[in-house]
Fold these 4 entries.
Entry 1:
Amino acid sequence: MHTETHTGLESPKGIWWKPAHKSEKVWVGIAFAWCMVLFAMMPLWHWKGGQNPSGIRRRVEPAAFFARTQEFIQQYQVDTDRGMPIVAPPPGSDIYLTGMSFQWTPILKLQKGAEYILHLSALDVNHGFSLYPINVNFQVIPGYDYGLRITPNASGDFRIICNEFCGIGHHTMVGRVIVEDAPATGTPGTGGTP
Amino acid sequence: MTAPAATFRTCPVTTRRIHDQAESLVKINAVVSVVALLIGAIAAVLIVLTRWQAVHLLSATWFYRLLGVHGMSMLIFFIVFFEMAVLYFASTALINARLVAPKLAWFSFLLMLGGAVLVEAMMWGGKADVLFTSYVPLRASPAYYLGIILFAVGALIVTGIFFANLVVAKREKRYEGSLPLVVYGAVTAAIITVITLLHGAAIYIPTFLWSLGLMHVDPQVYRMVWWGLGHSSQQINVAAMVAIWYMLGGLTIGAVVLNEKISRSAFVLYVLFISMASAHHLLVDPGMGPAWKVVNTSYFMYMAVLASMIHGFTVPAGMELGMRLRGYTNGMFDWLRRAPWHDPGFSSLVLSVVVFGFVGGITGVTIGTEQINIIVHNTLRVPGHFHATVVSGTAMAFMGATYYLIPLVFQKRVAFWRMAQWQPYIFAGGMFIFTLSMTFAGSFGVPRRHWDITFSQAPFDVPFSPVVDLVLAVVAVGGLLAATGAFMFVAIAVASVFFGKPLGEITKGTAMVGVPQGITHPPVHAADVDARNAALHAPGRGIMGPAPGTIVLVFVFLAAFILYFFVNWKILSFVWKIG
């Protein structure tokens, strides 16, 4: 049965399609089963899990997206920090963040426990949205609007690091997200924590 | 094509026929490859000394510039030139065949060299500060894209010559039966090379035209097609590396092929599914939907992962069985304890298998999961993963192969022999520290490709935990140790090839300085090897079969895999709800 013992450097003679030893078959079977588990986890998480990168995705002209961001800023601006507008949109609204070399605009002020649709896009080149210190990361591409439903689960003062190389000033590109605990007073709409 | 006058010599060690033209091309490609390794390693030292925040050596401009140089020199020029050497070697010397088109082969070499020099000149001259990936609309000088195209065309021609060599060898009856498994593995690497280079043409030709202002290239489409080149080229490395695992196993300890059917089927799975790997890089991109991401990132239900898990069993099991057939039959791990650990070919092989599997493989599959990628994308976990695959895995295997190519092809003794015996441990040890600490730093959200994580010039502070500073210092120490290993390798290779002692007469059974033990003590099997093999496969030995030690090892691996995978899901479940 097991004839022609040889190394991988030698040509196998005759027909090499022979049955494998049981131990080898068992390992292939276990490895296959594990691969199915690896695969099943992804659809399962879409169904039961809370973190998926699906979002609402559409093409957009970079200039049009930037104009929409400016409109959003005018609508909800409450303050400025270092010349950058701070924007406090009501819970449940669509919010816009534009990445450009080398800044994120605007600063977002959100409420803990409220859902928003965060639209990400870039004005010029690829950027990387990396929320510090939560460590949540998305690719931001000019010409594409990535609308992600987000629900902050903790209050605090967060940062947005750019983690896609966008030019020599890449490391200076930092934005800011503020998440507040209590529902803001006087906010119209569906405010409040669930 | 009529056979030109070809000059052959017979290898005194393996008794195979070696064509002089093929041998020259193996040599020249290997030499250029080592030069690229040297350039890449110098850049690596400067980069790690910059990311070590306490040292912070380079300016921002030179940091990003040299990061590009490091990527192209290592991942493209070092590895692809070496793979060209592997293709020439596998399609000629391993099967007693000749190189069919020497002039075309030299032409393609010059094309590749010209392209590589052009790319390096553009990068060093500051005309291509776009990093390895050159995502449009970041713009480099058109000459940069042209250089890559020339290089790729040259590599494509070599792949064609490789297939032609095999066809002619078959027709001229240079070998009997099927191709050896090692050559079969090289064939799969060559097929994946063709797939990869076609993606390369599909992206770099339009990008070249875009850089001249002649057409538009969509940034998302660029990312998708570019990664058909960028990730698939890493699958060439995997296939070539696994072929070299089988080769080094055979050369160093007489590793046998457990079952040709299983090993070859695993190689076929690579060809069928591995070019879907582009998706790994687009999991948190806006251009693709979840169904596309899930199907592609899993190589259609993890069939390529299955292939690697199969090789991860058959390679060590073949080594174990090879040792047992040579009489090392005691207990579970006597074969491993009594293996030639002082042979740099053997230690490279084992270190390559272990670090590739345990660090590179487990982290790669985990971070390439659609949702887990949210907490990984573009952090230091990504380079932490691929340095474990492509450096500790592929580069380590190529270095191990070089310790045998120096005597077998260059007919020289390995210089600085004591240093060569240490080199794999230093290189792999450094890389092990480097990749693990990088992965750890990345889990704090530390970005990759970043000059300054103290954000001293940024409008807002980002107060990373002091632990991160410490971990980045460890990254630097690991990186410098690995770079030391790389410089040792370059010194050994250059000194052996250009100034080395001729190999001279080999007396079988007598150890020689500068000659690996697989050559002085060929691991031949006894005449009754088939009977011994049958006994080791006997039903009485039970389910553990002919390689019980390996069974234990692969289950340790599986346990580590399962643990790491589910810990990552747990960590993901703590972050904000996103959908």
Note: The beta strands of chain B are 8-10, 17-19, 577-578.
Entry 2:
Amino acid sequence: MIALIGKAGVLLGVLASLEMIRRGIVGFRRPERASRAYLGGATAALVVGAVVAMGALQAALLGNDFSIRYIAENHSRSTPFPFNVATAWAALEGSIVLWGLVLAGYAWSVVRRHRDGDDVGAGATAVIGVVALFFFGVMATVADPFQTLDVVPPDGPGPNPLLQNHIMMAIHPPLLYLGFVGFTVPFAFAIASLAKGEPGSRWLERTRTWSLVAWSFLGLGIVIGGWWSYEVLGWGGFWAWDPVENASFIPWLTATAFIHSAVVETRRGVLRSWNYVLVILTFAFTIFGTFLTRSGVIGSVHAFSQSAIGPVLLGFFAVILFASLTLIAFRAPVVSSPSRLDSFVSREGAFLLNNLILSILAAVVLLGTTYPMIVEAISGEQISVGRPFFDRYAIPISYLLLASMGVGTVAPYRKARPIVLWDRIRGSLVVAALAGAILVVTGIRVGHVVAIVALAILVVGPAAERLWRQASAFMAARGEGRGRSLLRVVRRDPRFWGGQVAHLGVAILAVGVALYGNLSNEAMIELRPGETGSVLGYEVTYLESFQRPEPNRLVTGARVAVSRDGDLVAVMEPRLNQYPNFQQAIGTPAVNISLARDIYMTIRRLDPESVILDVQTHPMMYLVWIGGIMMAAGGFASFVIRKPERDDLDEAVRDHVGSPG
Amino acid sequence: MTSSPDPISELADPSRQSRRIWAVVSVVGVLLLAFLVVLGSRFGSDPSLVKSPLIGKPVPDLTLPLLEGDGEVSLRQKRGTILVINFWASWCTACRDEHPDLMATAAAYADRGVEFLGIVYQDDPQAAIAFLDELGRGYPSVLDPGSLAAIEFGVFGVPETFFIDADGIIAGKITGQSNAFILASTLDTLLAGGRPGSQTVGTVQSSPDS
Amino acid sequence: MSDPLVDTETAPDAPRPTGKVVVILLAAAVAVVAIGLITAPPRPEDRTKIIAAQLRCPVCQSESVLDSPSDTARQMRELIASQVAEGRTDQEIIDYFVARYGTWILLDPPASPRTIPLLVAPAVILLLGLWLIRGRLRPRRRRPAVPPS
């Protein structure tokens, strides 16, 4: 019964997508018919179909309907909340349903903003319809989540233990999908705008919010994924250059390039066709990433099992790229930007540099991720490409990016005279150099750490200085308080300041990563019950082992007291979780977070006589998470904060500080 | 691919500009197509299977304790006989399936100078003994303390089966679940003086849940 | 779109103290950093970890021998440590593993005819990017005969 309802939802989704395509094309050709009501009808049906499909899946999970194959394979009666809900996207078929639901939501947000007579908007609806048709078509055929079983098992194995081991895994996929799927909207408008031969940058302006939403969610999803990795996988790291991680990182890189080059186009009218290329690549890479994750062509800790969906996704990726490329080639004369840059030493020059760097990194990551497959297909030889290769490029590129961020954000448009640049960054340069000197004097004599901290200050400093000075100008002009003036400055240009919040996040993240990579420590220690040992400057006492059954697993662990100089720091409980139907226990680290450092403890071996503990310390690990979250927050802030309609203070400010940016 | 160029010509001549754009698009398109064909050719292959570079190399000099009873087995001492080494574990489903065929082949080739030896891979000895109690023995198994033998043989998972010729050279390898036919044909090649090389017949399990 | 807020070339934002103080301060701080870093005692390097980080764990998906918590990786780390203790060089230890697992086990593929494209591609992409940017910069003019290096 539930399966039937679910299938009906999927079918409705297929039909609704077809109707969206038809009506979209009609409206695209004849603007007078491109009304919101006309397009909205089909889109509403898509939303209903997606909600019914997801609702049926949830009902089947919560109602333990093991007659559905997906439920029988991925759910168990003992799976607790919220993991039973999250099981809906813990495996391939369900994750496509979530994809469809998110896509329907974005489609609806597009139609809601649609104005009657907007032919490009209608065309975009048709493109979204094509994408929706693909995903609902997949649900109806090669990845049917509502396939039923003839023999109904009484219970199932439950989701993969790694996926029900931490709350982060329940929210990580939806965030990632909100990011991935969101790029459908700017892509759709880009295609419609190209097809129409629309001059100007209107499509960029109108899809700006969606691009930022998608970018922010994608970044957030990646950071939460790293956090999950750190809290669950037990190796003490958050990024492994694993193919599946790379698959989400590549579109993030191209999207980051896109939201920057979009600024250049809207401000200066250059890079028009480059923006089309970037948004098409970003969308195509979201599909490619899904292909890498789900086709079984690569081995990865995060990969879903092999399935027939691989060729279908690869085919869709090919169609997107070939169709878009051809379209760009046809429209090249229309979309080529007439204007040129005046000087490389300018704000747009910095944006260009940023685009170059991000594109190179994206290309390197793509190449490194796929190269082993290419070599093996051609020669049969098996090679690996891992962290040493990626780090070799990512580290210098990160340095370059940070450096260009600090100078770039305060460089004037058109042309920046060196004296102006020097004037705007010299204060931050001094602070950065002093901070480096302080670090060295206090004993942190590690080149990478000193350099990254200094660069981080250089990223944040010039913008902070500008904020302060503009606020001072307001205070002088209006006699308002400092807080009010700061707020006023930010509200006057939320795009810029939202971007600066994101940059602050990047700076914090960079410092966190540098600390993690250079000042972490690790040691192993074997202890008998009651024994105390010394490791990494802590006294560690193995109090006892414990065992407690939980509904969905048997938890075995060691209770360990950690103290420093006689003062108790924490009692930690690294665990081994044994899930029924899975033979191997899943080690779960215990993490003690403090202002100075994380203490990270995993059980490497536990038997009645002793425990072998792997103890790591990671200084200020929270910087990585805070930085990542702040990046996303900056993205959101830059469109959530609304600019006041009119600002009578422009003139007053200009008198004091010249023109702000 | 991110290097897809901004297809804009600096040339004013529209026909030359258009030709140049199409040239760029074609080049990108062809590269893309090649890339897709390569990726497409990977479907159905298992990314976790890796070829062994050990074929033609001498057998590692290892002495391993017997799983049951006291005593040790030295791999080098086995020279003069053909040795079939099977890495297995009780948690490995393919090992369970291939075990009867291994026993039968061992019995069939016993009088032709072929010896079989099991090496228990990352398993509890009691579980391994229980496995043999259930499925039968036919030939001895040894333990692999510290997984040193597994590393020496470049093992990725179980089951993996190695064939050592009479000179102590690793002459063949079967990755994944073997069967009586493959075992027999490999041994026949070896007995006839040939080098069977490596064959992949299935996937291996690197841990109880993979 | 013309935005009154677009920041174009202006005079220095405000009259400020002479640059001399800034330059001296900067030079002093940079000198402290440079001296501090150059004279820093060499950090004790753990060869076992350095080698383990370059090897791919054979029973995992894409983790290194250093990162993987698996039994096999632990055994391999112990093996590396004992070979280090025996006085073998890094290359000898790495070769030991390559002889058993093939070049697959190296996370950083060594230069070979098959990996040349991978190793030169980033540089090619960089040059291509610079060439494209150059096209964006110049006012309309004839295409340069040779791409700049």
Note: The two ends of chain A are 60 Å apart (CA to CA).
Entry 3:
Amino acid sequence: MTATAAPHETAQVSEIARIIAAHLHREGPLLPILHDVQAGYGHIPAAAHSPIAEALNITRAELHGVISFYHDFKDKQAGVHVVKICRAEACQSVGANALSEAVLGKLGLDWHGTTPDGRVTVEPVYCLGLCACGPAAMVDGTLKGRATVETLLAEVTA
Amino acid sequence: MKVYVPRDAAARALGSDAVAAVFEAAGHTVIRNGSRGMIWLEPLVEIEENGIRSAWGPVAPGDVAGILDGSVESLGPVEDIPFFARQQRLTFARCGLIDPLDLADYEAHGGLKGLRRAIEMGPEAIVTEVKNSGLRGRGGAGFPTGIKWETVAKARGPQKYIVCNADEGDSGTFADRMIMEGDPFTLIEGMVIAGLAVGATKGYVYIRSEYPDAIEVMERAVEIARQNNILGRVLHSSHEFDIEIRVGAGAYVCGEETSLLNSLEGKRGVVRAKPPLPALEGFMGRPTVVNNVLSLATVPVILEKGAALYEGFGLGRSKGTMPIQIAGNVRHGGLFETAFGMPLGELVNDVAGGTASGRPVKAVQVGGPLGAYFAPEKFDTPFGYEEFDGQGGLIGHAGIVVFDDSADMLGLARFAMEFCAVESCGKCTPCRIGAVRGVETLDRIAAGDAGAVPLLVDLCQTMKHGSLCALGGFTPYPVMSALEQFPEEFQGVREAAE
């Protein structure tokens, strides 16, 4: 029995092939490829594994090892909004623990969790380089200095 | 009239984009410079008129009208603000002063002079100059940069590389980020000089993904450098050099040079055993210089002004200046570049003005998450590699994180172990297992089992001496320094930290 790929899957396969081709000339192309796939799909879809492994002549096990090693590469999509709160020492010295407890508590989440409506994911991050204006956070890629519960939640629950 | 509003990530995180937009809406052209390093004044706006450049800060969008009509008083020139006035800026001389992506502005402020001199000198003389300057690796290890270059220069291989370690993951440090966002050409120039010195034609800058602004500025700066023959055929000489920007993927351990090289090659960022040294078998198994951003960004000024000038600053074997980053619970936080030798207490109490909360300083952590805590009793320690080592600590990447008296030292010790467990690459057992056992042991102590303290000490000894790299090897620094200076917090009479 042969399965026919749905049109969106065909599009995905050709897009992944395009990403691979764009980086294949580099020395050590795997991370640039994974970054582009992650940026395009919000995660590394399983359908991307075989083409990447084949193009780079590595096993799928090796590829899985790389994907799972790095915090940036996800196997499933995050919520619509992603809030990253810095947990590192400089931010702890100005109340980061209380900030993250309050944000997680109000959303009813643990670290890495996503709200049931799929709206918000909260992740820890270890330093955003904003150590003299903490607590620091990143909301959907935008950096926030001297973050408060109100400013973080206002952006993602509005 | 020129209006400067920083595009530095910290300034943007505090609202500088909105401030710049108001100036633009009022019909002014805004130069998005780097930060002058006084983060408590960000967004810091500067306006240059009739040759005088005056500063205002922190500026909110609503303040702009008042600044323009003269009703809001200026702080005066940045150079007169005490925090700035007492610095000795060499590496950061241009940061915040110039338009980061304006090559003519860069050259007008001394840019490319070092590279031009380097081309005239030739490889051996460049290496000698860097050796004579006394420059040591600014990433934390403090290895003499010139000796590393000499090793790579003498190594044989079909291709050599310059790899810039811009994986600045240490809490309390942001100097790499600031220089990449505020003066990217100085890093590029430093890498080109390194390439000339060792015979490398290809360079990589490995920037952590948590620094989107730095990545963007560096990408644009590399493009501009290519168009202007700084990269490619270097200043129309016979030398070739090109740079590629690479982005990390959220692994702290990739700041360790061998795991960075694995990551760059597209592998898991696990640590490699040394030897072989990366200088002989580095990226793709070929001779590779791996230097921190600040080491490379300091090379142009050394070549421009000479090794003797640079070597004239400092203390003992810590030569030159260090861009110290003052962070955490601090009144005046930011980047403070000064000659080595200033006592820690002077930095914390005088320069930084103590805590932001106004409460007494309890401890400062120097050198990132793997650095020791220093209680005020040790505040007379002069800022230098050997001096800090002698006090059971390290200067690392020169970040100072200040804590007031509400700090929970056992909780911070536990966090150090937890962080190590999260970020361990897993290659060596003392780090991979030790960090997990460390969290458990600290939880036992927190729950009332003071008898677990000797176990914690023993575990720290094993991690310190048995780990492959500084992650497992140095995690005992914060843990042991907290235990030794604040033993009463490890008596087991308190509630669990979590």
Note: Chain A touches chain B through 42 residues (CB under 8 Å).
Entry 4:
Amino acid sequence: MPATNLAHLRRVLAVRGLTPASVIPDASGGRTEEACVRPARLVEGDSLAWRPVGAAEPWPDPLAFLDGIQRSELIAYAGAAPIVVGEIAAAVRERAGRRLTTVLTERRVIAIARPSALAAAGDALDGLESVALPEDEPPHPVRDLFNAARALDRARGSLELLVGDRFRRQSEGWLVVDGSLTESPGWAADPRMLGISKSHATLPFEGAELERYLRLPYGHRSSVYAPETRSLAPVRAWALRLWPWEGKDLFHGLVRIEVAPVNGSTEMADLLARRLLAERAPLSTPDPRWDRLLYGIHSVEQYLRAQVRGTA
Amino acid sequence: MLESHPPVGRVVATELKPSTPHQFYFWTARESPIGIGAIVRVEEQGRVVFGVVTDGFAYSDLVTPMHAVIGADGDPVAAGIEPTTRAEIRLFSAAVLRQMPEEPLQPVPLGPVWLASDADVVLALRMDSYTTGDRPTGIPIGLYAAGGLESPVYLDCDFLLGPEAAHLNITGVSGLATKTSAVEFLLSSIFQTFPRHKGSVAALCFNVKGPDLCFLDQPAALNEEDRRLYAKLGLRPEPFSNVRYYAPFKGDGVNLNTLRTHDALAANTEPLVWGLHEVLDYAEVVLNRDDVDAKADAFIDFLGERVVGREYRDEMLRGKPFLVQSFADLEEFFRAIFEFMEVLGKGAEVWKTHHLATIRKVRNRLSNISTRSKGLVTDDGVAHDLPWGRFADRSVHVVDVAGLDPLAQDLVFARIVSKLREHLERRDLGVDHVVVFVDELNKYAPADGADTYVRKMLLDLSERGRYLGLVLFSAQQFRSQVQRRVVGNAGTGIYGRMDMDELATPGYATISPATKIKLATLPKGELMVRHPHFTQPIFVKFPRPAVLNSREGIERFPPATDLPFAEAVARQMRGLDRRVATDAVCALLEGRREDDVRRALSATRRERPADAYAFFAACLGRRVNGEVVVPRRGIPAVRRADDSYGR
């Protein structure tokens, strides 16, 4: 491949009306196998618009953040069937007086494998929860490992739901969740929950509207829309640009906000967007997703990583 | 050793900051009572480690300051109102004080950390070995205070006054109640708690500046907090009960050269007067070392062994024998030699193997002593000295040399310390241990400069004094400017507030930066203590001394103004006998020669008769009429000018 001046090439493409890009921000693409467009329904205005949200506004106390983590390790094969041990954890950290403290935390260690592989392990896995992988096809190490990762994802999601529900039983405060609210009908209808997604594998528009959606300026939000969802938990959503993207990438600083339909009004969307803008600082560096990762969520992750690492 | 209080921290170790047998790191909550100098306890799996906090660190999860700038859009105000404060760590480093069990010596375990309790402080500082049992030897030095706890800290008198180790050195800037206050408090503590089974103890203090030590027998007005500290230490807040002051006279020979001249303080303030006999043995101290060559030394020895204090007969000089007992007698002796040599005429340069120039030089130097030390050294030979052989247990003797010429100060130091040594060697001083306090040590034992007699004497005292019970308590502003061996031999070190420049010198290299900062900002009444039993320096606070400080003392007992000769004598007489009337003394002295009066006064002071006035009058004898003084012939110059000294 001949040496090419990429910087020059970017400038030339920009002159021709294209958007220069460098690298897709970490985790903004989500899982590539899930990348798709699911057209959404606009609920604010007739066409997708950019709305300036105004100056950042502090979120009143208390404000809680929920996140979960997972780690896994391949520990054995039973024949060709892999056995994976995974650890999942979820926690809520609540902010009061500018200081975050952990109010809820939950951890699990689970063994994931085909039932036959789990049986072969005998009592070696005693004390661990087990998740059985489907046995409708013959063992294939790569496919089984992929399935194990999906199972661990689901287990972590379930643990987050458990912790979120437990928090709601003990507090009426706002809870910011890392990810989508559509995983739970309860969350999707909760008037004091907010989901914030960093990944954009599933996009709500296509064509010119998608371009408009992705070129959202800093400090603006998109019109509120109702995303198409596979579950029965309708929510309202909008995009919010937390940091200027120009010169970086279309996804830089772009997050998708989900709230219960009751919070889908223009005024409420503006208010929540202003509050989220205030949460840009402090930066969650050195995490590579710092442009979309709120410090509160980052703090939960740090806490959980320290917990899980401490027992590794 | 279960603890009812929750731990305040937890030991952490990383590859870059590992736990070692001598140091460890621990983190605490952001709000914790831990500070520099705090003593902590780590307990894990049967091993207990005590440590003292030497440094502290705090940092957040911020990777680079640039991220803070970006997060606040470059606005420092916005940075202050970020909705969430960053995660922050309070990390402390601690130096190990003691491990239990002591063997095998291992790295500090990664266990919980507690703030030390009273019992922990005793163990951590190894005070259990000398504050308990049948024959405890602990001397309270102050209170270790941290986290609301106050634990008494004791020094081991075996390591403070000997024989195991001895001596104490105090460093600190002037004017912040460090050096003098600390010594006053510690002496009081020693006097109150020095165990009887260790024998008797007295103190001899040189007051080298102003009224520093002039009111040790006067009580201070202490506040409640001071009294509480005394009670916590088990001490009585009271001044010294047996103090005697010694000060030389001023040039007039009757007014004392001290600031302690108030009438109310006269009872235990005495003159310090030495004659030729007391001085000649220490001629080397006051003579310029370059002057005292072998020839001069030989002649001084001749004087000391053959002439002074005994009858010396030389028919060639004069018919009747010489009895040299004073500088005046010595001057007469020299005059006789010079007159004899003059009679011999040209070519007569040697008298009894001593060259005339050597004799003349020794005569000049010795007469210079009585000139420069006027008031301390008397011409008439009547001395008034310290009570050698009669030192009482728990007595303090203060020698006020503040107003003396440096040469005379050296003489006082040399002679008194030498006499203490002599008596302690013979075990006939009256006490078993003597604490000698010398302030401004950098002046008397400087790191640089000539190797003076006083410096050699202080070095000898610091290296060998403990075997005799002769203990040096010394103080100075800058330890780095003192002879290293003198301070190095001090088993116990006390540091008050220090100057940062001083702390930057190599002698403080082992002290952590945080401890240096603490030392540089130490409040009044707090000290850092090094002691052989403590493996690390410890911070303590101590109450105000129970004696009047110099400023209050001078206000309450302003020094008396110098009086005319007769009134000054009357004041001295009243010090001996309160019934003596000033008018009577003045009338008695009318027309008397001052030398005669001084001699009579000295005799009265020495005898301390029941009726001082009658004794004094008897010593003066009957009044004699004035006589016409015939001018004496001057001393002729040496005729030849081949003086080997080029004069």
Note: The first helix of chain B runs from residue 65 to 71.
